[in-house]
């Protein structure tokens, strides 16, 4: 689900490119509109456990001002191109902010599902809607995500994710293509 800002805005706004695994700087006066690439936002618990807050792609906005969670990190999962939106233009990004809220709540509802296999399946479907593209076998999740990263989102172990993915593959629900996952046509 991508959103667009007023067509005249991008030409007068600052563009910024970030490398894979680079952290977007914590600025409370800027929102970042993602023009290309994928980002995840996260925090961690007192015990050091990573807590994923969201996955974001083209058309989405991210920024420290959208969260009260501390600590709060914005990590680029790929090379990312952004447009910096200063606070005086945030009113132009209302639609993107609404999408941000909706996606956050959708992900929150997924991570509270039981059993864990349902949680994993619904997270894969969510990723396929957000980062997917049609291929012959189904919907390819066009995002490099490790079993460990999936486990961090759905609050389980990497071993459990690997086992459940193998089960989904045996059931014909999932196809692996190189290091990517395809939600099989039903």
TrEMBL record:
InterPro entries: cNMP-bd_dom_sf, HTH_CRP, WH-like_DNA-bd_sf, WH_DNA-bd_sf. GO terms for biological process: regulation of DNA-templated transcription. GO terms for molecular function: DNA binding. Gene3D superfamilies: Winged helix-like DNA-binding domain superfamily/Winged helix DNA-binding domain. The keyword DNA-binding applies. This is Transcriptional regulator. It comes from the Bacteria. Pfam families: HTH_Crp_2 (PF13545). Residues 114-186 form the HTH crp-type domain. The keyword Ligase does not apply. It comes from Aliterella atlantica CENA595. The lineage of its organism: Bacteria, Bacillati, Cyanobacteriota, Cyanophyceae, Chroococcidiopsidales. SMART domains: HTH_CRP. Keywords: DNA-binding, Transcription, Transcription regulation. CDD domains: HTH_CRP (cd00092).
């Amino acid at each position: 689900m991508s959103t667009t800002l007023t067509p005249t805005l991008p030409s007068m706004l600052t563009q910024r490119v970030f490398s894979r695994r680079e952290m977007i700087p914590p600025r409370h006066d800027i929102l970042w509109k993602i023009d290309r690439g994928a980002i995840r936002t996260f925090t961690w618990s007192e015990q050091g456990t990573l807590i994923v807050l969201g996955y974001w792609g083209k058309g989405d906005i991210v920024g420290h001002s959208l969260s009260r969670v501390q600590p709060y990190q914005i990590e680029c999962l790929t090379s990312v191109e952004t447009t910096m939106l200063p606070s005086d233009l945030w009113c132009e990004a209302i639609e993107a902010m609404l999408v941000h809220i909706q996606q956050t709540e959708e992900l929150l509802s997924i991570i509270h599902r039981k059993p864990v296999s349902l949680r994993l399946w619904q997270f894969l479907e969510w990723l396929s809607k957000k980062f997917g593209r049609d291929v012959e076998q189904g919907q390819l999740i066009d995002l490099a995500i490790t079993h460990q990263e999936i486990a961090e989102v759905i609050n389980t172990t990497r071993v459990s994710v690997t086992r459940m993915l193998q089960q989904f593959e045996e059931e014909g629900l999932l196809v692996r293509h190189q290091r990517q996952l395809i939600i099989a046509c039903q």
